[in-house]
């Protein structure tokens, strides 16, 4: 009888074989979402060496250890290239946590329930938009949990960024210059609402009369005084061949203006290295990018849990690294058993400063855990890496209905060519009393209309 050894070489061969066949279906020992459908546990789908950094490293690393320049070569193959550079050359450190095997701790509960319930019902229509078998807009959850192509992974991500029907993120932003000092500090709010594919808010799955819209999304600034009242509203059509409508309120003009919507590679505020295009690594309509292809599969170290900071009353995070100890968030990472790397090229942006981007997706959830863009010469240009969390830790929790709140917790947006870093963190509250929340039906009137922009600008 032949004995199969489920070691690193076995997993590597399986991943390479899937890549050669052009298949991205997740799982090594069995299809991942068949395992998830049983009880939400991914363990059956992967060998032990992909479920523990200690097993993967053959005892050289374990949960609780820290990755630094002293040992980063051990895990170079588990990091995106710019994150590796940050650890090796810039003093970034990463704390290792055990691998999360319960998928219900990696996304909102209702979103995952809908993903399981509606599994297998999604398809693309003639225009390349996600629809049901009846040709209607999507009805909720991940439309392609068993994604087989790069297009399916990006389509699911673009359809629902934050995976809640409505979200309001209270955010603090810090822009760090070459000296390591913080050049700019901002407080801002970011709101999202989905008129379709709703799993919590009534009416569902569609907001009656708005089925032709994919999302309403706004960003507004409250600090410092120089930008207080500046706000923008994106209204996305469901048709992913069309650009959103972009409106803005600038306090010096005291009126709403409509802006060109294809200028998505420029910062909204001075000092920032974060662009509209970067949002959730899929900030542009699906078909304004193209040539989606899977270019890699394998394990990855990423911040998919443990990112919440309950010890601070406003959820604020500690920093380290760089010339002044202010360049990086303290970050907890874990071994993701399988990540799928998808490459895409901008096809409707003739003046785009980037030639392509690569996004690392957690195969279990379809979440973007890292992104690197490349300039027109093909050189690494810009990175985006996020940390996520179930807001339940240290005996504390933030509830979202019947279940703990799940969301992103902090983000790095880094320009490797200039050395400038933008750090963002989701906090409990920013100036003006704006608080992070999910699935609040009042978010639309407060943040997602032109009247709301005027009101915020005059507050």
UniProtKB/TrEMBL annotation:
Family matches, as Pfam families: DUF1329
Family annotation (InterPro entries): DUF1329, TAT_signal
Protein name: DUF1329 domain-containing protein
Top-level taxonomy: Bacteria, Pseudomonadati, Pseudomonadota, Gammaproteobacteria, Nevskiales
């Amino acid at each position: 009888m032949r004995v199969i050894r489920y070691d690193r070489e076995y997993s590597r061969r399986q991943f390479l074989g899937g890549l050669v066949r052009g298949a991205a279906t997740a799982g090594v020992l069995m299809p991942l979402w068949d395992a998830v459908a049983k009880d939400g546990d991914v363990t059956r789908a992967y060998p032990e060496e992909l479920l523990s950094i200690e097993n993967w490293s053959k005892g050289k690393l374990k949960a609780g250890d820290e990755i630094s320049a002293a040992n980063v070569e051990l895990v170079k193959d588990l990091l995106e290239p710019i994150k590796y550079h940050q650890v090796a050359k810039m003093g970034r450190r990463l704390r290792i946590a055990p691998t999360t095997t319960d998928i219900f701790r990696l996304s909102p509960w209702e979103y995952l329930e809908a993903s399981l319930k509606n599994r297998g019902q999604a398809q693309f229509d003639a225009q390349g938009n996600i629809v049901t078998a009846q040709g209607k807009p999507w009805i909720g959850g991940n439309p392609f949990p068993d994604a087989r192509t790069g297009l399916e992974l990006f389509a699911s991500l673009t359809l629902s960024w934050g995976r809640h029907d409505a979200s309001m993120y209270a955010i603090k932003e810090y822009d760090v210059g070459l000296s390591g000092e913080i050049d700019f500090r901002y407080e801002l709010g970011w709101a999202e609402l989905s008129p379709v594919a709703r799993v919590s808010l009534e009416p569902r799955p569609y907001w009656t009369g708005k089925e032709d819209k994919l999302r309403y999304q706004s960003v507004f600034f409250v600090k410092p005084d120089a930008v207080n009242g500046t706000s923008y509203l994106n209204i996305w059509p469901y048709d992913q061949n069309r650009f959103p409508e972009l409106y803005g309120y600038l306090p010096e003009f005291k009126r709403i203006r409509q802006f060109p919507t294809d200028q998505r590679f420029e910062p909204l505020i001075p000092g920032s290295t974060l662009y509209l295009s970067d949002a959730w690594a899929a900030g542009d309509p699906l078909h304004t990018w193209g040539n989606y292809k899977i270019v890699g599969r394998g394990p990855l170290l990423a911040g998919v849990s443990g990112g919440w900071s309950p010890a601070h009353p406003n959820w604020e995070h500690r920093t380290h690294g760089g010339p002044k100890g202010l360049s990086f968030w303290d970050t907890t990472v874990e071994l993701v058993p399988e990540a799928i790397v998808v490459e895409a090229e901008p096809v409707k942006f003739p003046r785009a400063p980037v030639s392509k981007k690569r996004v690392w997706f957690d195969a279990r959830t379809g979440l973007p855990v890292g992104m690197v863009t490349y300039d027109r010469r093909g050189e690494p240009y810009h990175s985006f890496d996020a940390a996520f969390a179930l807001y339940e830790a240290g005996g504390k929790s933030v509830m979202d209905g019947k279940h703990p709140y799940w969301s992103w917790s902090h983000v790095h947006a880094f320009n490797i060519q200039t050395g400038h870093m933008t750090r963002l963190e989701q906090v409990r509250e920013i100036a003006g009393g704006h608080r992070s929340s999910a699935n609040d039906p009042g978010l639309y009137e407060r943040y997602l209309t032109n009247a709301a922009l005027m009101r915020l600008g005059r507050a």
